[in-house]
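Example record

The entry below shows one chain as it appears in the dataset: sequence first, then structure tokens.
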Amino acid sequence: MHHQLNFNLFYRKIFSTVLLLACSALVFGQNISSKKWKDLFSYNNVLKISQDDTKLIAATENGLFYYDIANGEITKLSKTNGLHEVKITAFDYNPTTKIGLIGYTSGAMDIISPEGITYVVDIPVAQGFNGDKKINHISIVGNSAIVSVNYGVSIFNLEKKEFGATAFFNTGSSYIASKEATIKGDKIYSATANGLLSHDLNVTFPVFTTWTTLFTGNFTQAVSNGTLAFATPNTVYYENGATFSTLAASFTEINDVEVKDSKIIITDKTRIFVYSNTGTAQTNVTFAEDCNTANFVLGKLYGGTKLSGVKDLDSKFYKPDGPYNNASYKLSILNNQLWVSTGGLVSYNGPIYRDFGYYHFDGTKWIYPQYFVNNPILFNVMDVVPNPSNPSQVFFTNHNFAGDKGIYKMENDAFVKRYKSNDASNNYLNRPIGLTYDENNNLFATVFAIENSPLGTGYYLYNQGIDDFSLVPVATVSGVLKPVTKDGNIFIPAPFAADGGLVIKKYGTNPASTNVPTKVFRLANNLPANGIVSVAIDLNDDVWIGTRLGLRILPNFESALTDLSPQTEPVIITQNGIGEELFRDNVVLQIAVDSGNHKWVSVDGGGVYYLSEDGQQTLKQFTKENSPLPTNTVTDIQIDEKTGKVYFVTFDGIVVYQGDVAGVTSEFNNVTVYPNPVVQSQFRGNVTIRGLANKANIRITDAAGNLVHSAIARGGFYEWNLNNQKGKRVASGVYFMLMTNDDATSKATVKIAVVN
């Protein structure tokens, strides 16, 4: 249903709800996934390997995957199809009870059982503790799990789905983190930086002063599965009868210790050591790359790598296809191919050195260019774009304060050339940011802090004839972001509060010219005086401007360039009879326009909003609380006009939403209605009709030809609530949807079955 929304009110409600959940003792289930969502997460960084019958279960940063050894099938479980969060930090699974427990950075947990997935947010927090609440480790023993956090340990009852006793490791001046903990018999063992601590499972368990220090030192691992084992970064202890012994080997950097099938498995960076539970060395092997963990599944040893998924000793890899890493910032789409940059900026200025380069989906598989592997260059890739006339040719910007800054060209994901890497007497100057091609295949790269020019910003323009970029100063603003072009005009957001604004330059057929109409829109044009973050041009040539204090619209940019004092306009919505400025005082990070002229808008910390053509109605709203979005800060939104898919890019990964608007024109295009049939016991939402003309007249009749509903739809889709003209739900039966476009030159008919 369409509805109007007071954003500020909603914003306060969302964060009030989050606060309430954080402070309440609550276990509940919720469904924030649907078939319309898909993840583009990386499953390379494997944190834990478990087994369920013939399946290997691998826990990664943003989800689990299951590898069925019997038939080779790989399936995923993420926030798009059942989980409630991303950033997994702990996992354990009991193959007997078929119950698994996932711990997240936030301190929340998901319980996976044959009955479904339950979300748990009530982990006890030590009074006065203000540090990191992430779950460090989970160990399941029967129907109990010991949960390790930075302030102690808690016992969780998997059957009742509730926490029992909690021990806060409070020394009086600080808290001691439990890195890992396990249960053996009637005792709990916890690995901490202050030693290996132990306590009986009795009434004094919560009292920290009653805990015993079995061994002093920095302990990082504690595991029990028939045999108790624990470790420091380079020494492994194991239970040897009534005493403890150390394994004879000298380890370099122990990442994990597991006990399974009477074996002790030690993951020591790139080598895996296997001992019997009596301390006899059995084997040590290498997986030729860094591993987080290793385990036996059906008698075969598998390594959980940091960069390549699960790997066996035959160098075969097991993982769902996905990007190299979850770090992402900007996305380019061309002909079913994707390119993802991984950099970013702090406060629109300082580079975020995540140093991954870019990832590329070639239409069938994800590729990570070998050029970025072990490259000594420090990468902060802000943007990557393919050449529309030659998609095998790609340019990316490396924005940093080092001599390696510049614009890079790749061919078939292999390095070709670097431009403008030292084009300044000071590495702070002439730093490229965003890239865009215009409709004439001109390539622009916005530049921050131009050297020796009173015009502080501009762009590099690519000259294919000489295979080089020339610098074109444009305006006296500070800071730039990714540009947008349309019909011989370039739009450059300048985000700095002191000297920002929106730059519009009409270059026509000569983008190298500096003597063409150029205007900077600022405070005098009814823009907030603190910089522009995003810009989009809609189908009416209105400029939608995202600022650090809200949203503005500049009607008809062509006339605005010649107007002496053009004014931007806020979007005013009405809530309870009171006018309110949409997104007031919020940073509008990204704006995207679909082919039906609707707007997708991301707000920093507030998620994504799908707005009507004029912004007066909120058609949908997505947050990490009600959707698979990894975070509420979406750094890019891209729309595939052919398919209607909407890509949401965040620092923690990418998710895709199947939108209802694709290739909207004045004619109908493959009209479909779903769900169809619509069975009331299975679905209680609206029926969606997609593939409509931009303006469509809709008449819905029953099988006898009686009119039950009529409407005018704009923007390529329509939602019917299954009510008739009198506002009551229609009876079971077959209904016909008869549609014509605005001038009746195009027609379409579909039918739908309704079962009440």
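Notes for this example: The chain has a mean pLDDT of 92. DSSP finds two helices and 68 strands in the chain.
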